[in-house]
């Protein structure tokens, strides 16, 4: 009985020891590592390099003391503007007396430089009258009045001479209150330019024709050339008689191929003068 009890005790002790021994990991034999790495088709983890932030040296504050007066006066405009802007930003960022004083100092240089240019420009225009616009655009009141009379006469003459080759399409609607005002203005036009043809088109009855000319609102005036399919809008909405005449004058000259698009705002009496954009090209071609 005692022997049987001893056997059971040692058996239980052995089982307990073996159970605790299984809890400890088995060490790999010497020389044999774990199944990792290149041999087992596994890439080694890359070592991440720690990025060190380089400290940027602060930009030096702009100052006029680093430039002599002669350097500032003869500085390239782009470089001078960049310096002026940097000094202005410095004054706004830190509005100390010294910073704001430097800003006004460089502004004074810029003002004097602009004054020098304006003075030389005035001398050049007086010395070389061909570069001046005073002959085409007078400053004196009598000269301005004469210029207006010349423009008005040319516009009226061109419109009156063109009544045989051009006509107006007037799109309107009986329910349009603005059209009633435009009707009265067209009456003044016909009294002044007798013989001009104006065809009135009610868009409520001629929707297809309105769509062909892309009329989407009334009153609408369209200038047409009788000898071609060309046309040009004159106005949309109520237009005064003087504005109507100016637009007709320019439209007639464009559709009649008397002027190029570059000469659209030019009057004929201005041809060859300072308001003629093509004059330098003609002078250059004539000098060859």
Write the layout of secondary structure elements.
Layout: H1 2-23, H2 69-74, H3 77-93, H4 97-127, H5 141-161, E1 166-172, H6 177-192, E2 198-202, H7 207-212, E3 220-225, E4 231-236, H8 241-255, H9 279-286
Parallel strand pairs: 1-2
Antiparallel strand pairs: 1-3, 3-4
Description:
- By secondary structure, the chain is an alpha+beta fold.
- Among the domains are: 64-123; 141-271, Glutaredoxin (3-Layer(aba) Sandwich).
- Helix content is 49%, strand content 8%.
- It is built from 9 helices and 4 strands; from the N terminus they run H-H-H-H-H-E-H-E-H-E-E-H-H.
- A 4-stranded mixed β-sheet has the order 2-1-3-4.
- Strand 3 and strand 4 (231-236) form a beta hairpin.
- Helix 5 (141-161) crosses helix 8 (241-255).
- The protein is elongated and about 80 Å long.
- The model is unreliable at 21-26 (pLDDT under 50).
């Amino acid at each position: 009985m005692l022997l049987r009890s001893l056997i059971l005790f040692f058996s239980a002790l052995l089982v307990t020891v073996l159970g605790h021994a299984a809890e400890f990991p088995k060490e790999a034999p010497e020389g044999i590592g774990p199944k990792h790495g290149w041999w087992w088709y596994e890439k080694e983890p890359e070592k991440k390099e720690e990025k060190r932030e380089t400290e940027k040296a602060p930009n030096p504050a702009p100052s006029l003391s680093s430039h002599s007066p002669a350097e500032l006066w003869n500085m390239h405009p782009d470089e001078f503007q960049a310096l002026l802007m940097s000094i202005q930003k410095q004054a706004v960022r830190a509005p100390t007396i010294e910073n704001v004083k430097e800003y006004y100092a460089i502004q004074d240089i810029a003002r004097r430089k602009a004054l020098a240019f304006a003075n030389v420009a005035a001398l050049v225009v007086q010395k070389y009258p061909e570069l001046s616009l005073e002959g085409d655009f007078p400053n004196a009141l009598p000269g301005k009045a004469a210029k207006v009379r010349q423009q008005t006469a040319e516009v009226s003459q061109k419109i009156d001479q063109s009544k045989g080759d051009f006509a107006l399409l007037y799109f309107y609607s009986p329910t349009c209150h603005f059209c009633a005002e435009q009707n009265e203005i067209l009456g003044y036009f016909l009294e002044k330019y007798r013989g001009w043809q104006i065809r009135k088109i009610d868009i409520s009855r001629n929707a297809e024709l309105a769509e062909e000319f892309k009329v989407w609102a009334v009153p609408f005036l369209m200038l047409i050339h009788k000898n071609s399919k060309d046309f040009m809008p004159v106005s949309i909405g109520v237009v005064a008689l003087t504005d109507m005449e100016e637009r007709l004058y320019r439209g007639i000259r464009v559709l009649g191929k008397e002027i190029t698009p570059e000469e659209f705002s030019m009057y004929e009496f201005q041809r060859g003068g300072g308001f003629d954009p093509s004059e330098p090209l003609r002078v250059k071609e004539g000098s060859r």
